[in-house]
Each structure stands twice: as C-alpha cells, then as structure tokens.
Amino acid sequence: MNHPSGRSVNDTINHLIDQLRHENHDIRESAAIELLDVADESLDMLVEALHHDHWRVRQYITWILGQMGDRRAIPEIVSLLSDANQKVQEEAAAALDELRGTGSVEPLIQALAYTNPGVRSQAALALGHIGDLRAVPALIEALHDDDQSVRSNAAVALGLIKDKRAIDPLVNALNDEQDWVRAQAAKALGAMRASKAMDYLVPLLTGEGEWTRCNAAWALGELLDPRAIKPLMVASRSASTLMKRRCKEALAKLGHFPINTLFNE
Q: Cα–Cα distance between 184 and 212 in angstroms, integer?
C-alpha cells in the first residue's frame, strides 16, 4: 500500500520518524501527529525507533506509544526510564502513566530513587494512577523528597491509592514548608476520609497558603464530621472568593448550608 505522496507505508513512516529530529518545532509536532494517526499499523517500527540515536526521536516515539494505549510497548518504554537523556526519562514515566500496566510498577518504584527529579515526580503520579499497593511504602518515603513536585505528587498518589498506612505520613506532610505539598496532603486525607486528620486540618483553615486553606476546607467536607461546622463557618468569611466557596461547599456536605446559596456571595 502506498501513501498519497507515492511512498510505501514503511517509507512514509521512516520519513516521519526522521522528521522527529528536525530543528523546526512545527515540523516535529506535525510528524508526531501523523505518526500517531498510523500508529496501529506500525507498532513494530515505532518500538524499534525507541532505540534511535537521537534523543528527540526517542522522546516523541515514547509519547506516541503512550497515547496509543497498547501495553505491549511497556517493556521497551520501561527501559527508557534509564535513558541517557532526562527528557526521554520523563517522557517514559509519563507514557507508563498513560498505559497504567501493573508490569511497570516495580520499575516506577525504582525510578522514585533516580537523580532526575522530573522522572521521580512523574513516576509518583504514575504509581498513584496504577493504584498498586506495592508502591505505598516508596510513595510514603517520597513525601520526604528534596523536590517539592515529587513530594506533592507522592501525596496525590497516596490519596488515589487510599491505603491506611499513608494516613500518618500524610498528616505529617501537612507541616511541609511548601503550600502546594500541604494542599495535596490535605486533599489526600479528605479523599481517604481519614477521620483522625480532623484535628490537624481545622488549624489549616486559617494557616499559611491559599491552596492549603482551600484544600483543608474541601477535606473537612469529605470527613463529614459535624465538629468542622463552626470553624468552616468562621473561615467562610475569608476575603478569598475561592476559600468562601470551598467552605460553603463543605458546609453543604455537612448539611449546614443550603446548596442553592453557594454562589450567592
């Protein structure tokens, strides 16, 4: 079968793969999209291209395979977690997040210890989406990572997995120096309906960090503990529109605030 250009399908695919190394960003992006359109009939060629000598080609091919959703590519993509190029490593972790196969759990756990913080962060998120309990101890350890994006994604992941072993470490993460990390820890505790977190979440309503305050309000709504009504009422007087809304939504879940008045500021 020939492509409209007159090339055979294989020649067209090889041409597009070569375009992925082009200096022009638009040409690279167009080639990647075209390859994605014919990916189902060219899986073997795409997998082979993961070993291309140019890092951009490996990066784009990894993205394409992740978008395809074909888990047969997982073993080859796993090998790129150790690629010489950091951007390829990160794309590999992102592709494994898209594919969400249990066969990638152990390599992703190992990636949490890599020197590249981008791959550690993406690996944490991927493990959360896969939801395998084997990842819980490593994700708990990642709450202490030097990089705040790794810590925040570890909190997100633990909130997705909802294993009770993570409750105390997430409570400790409410004291993180970074607002976004504290916020994700609060949200995770709410998602887990961790009732013991109640006394730690309430002070956050008036603490440092807009995201922390808002997610603490959301989490208290998820806990459904009536003791949160009074502090949520006080916090709902905040000057922040978003904080007001989160408090009122939480109060509505607690049966204390009519839902139809949520947006009547």
A: 8
CATH 1.25.10.10 in the chain, residues? 1-98, 100-192, 197-265
Q: Give the pair of three-digit tokens for residue 102.
A: 């249990």
At residue 5, the pLDDT reads 55
Q: What CATH fold (topology level) applies to the domain 197-265?
A: Leucine-rich Repeat Variant (1.25.10)
Helix or strand run (H / E) with residue 52: none
Q: For the segment 162-183, what is each residue's pLDDT rounded down to a tens digit?
A: 999 999 999 999 999 999 999 9
Hey, is 85 helix, strand or coil?
coil
CATH 1.25.10.10 fits 100-192, yes or no: yes
- C-alpha span between 146 and 154 (Å, rounded): 12
Q: Could you write out the three-class secondary structure of 206-237?
A: HCCCHHHHHHHHHHHHHHCCHHHHHHHHHHCC
pLDDT of residue 54: 97
User: 220, 229 in Cβ contact below 8 A?
Assistant: no
Q: What is the pLDDT of residues 83-101, one digit of tens each?
A: 999 999 999 999 999 999 9
Residues β-bridged to residue 2 = 8
Mean pLDDT in residue range 220-226: 96
Please list the residues that pair with 8 across neighbouring strands.
2
Q: Which tokens go with 87?
A: 């951007």
Neighbouring C-alpha atoms within 13 Å toward the C-beta of 58: 24
Rg of the Cα atoms in the chain: 23
pTM of the model: 0.90
1-98 placed in CATH 1.25.10.10: yes
Long-range CB contacts (within 8 A, 24+) of 78-81: 78/103, 78/104, 78/107, 79/50, 80/50, 81/107, 81/108, 81/110, 81/111, 81/114, 81/119, 81/123
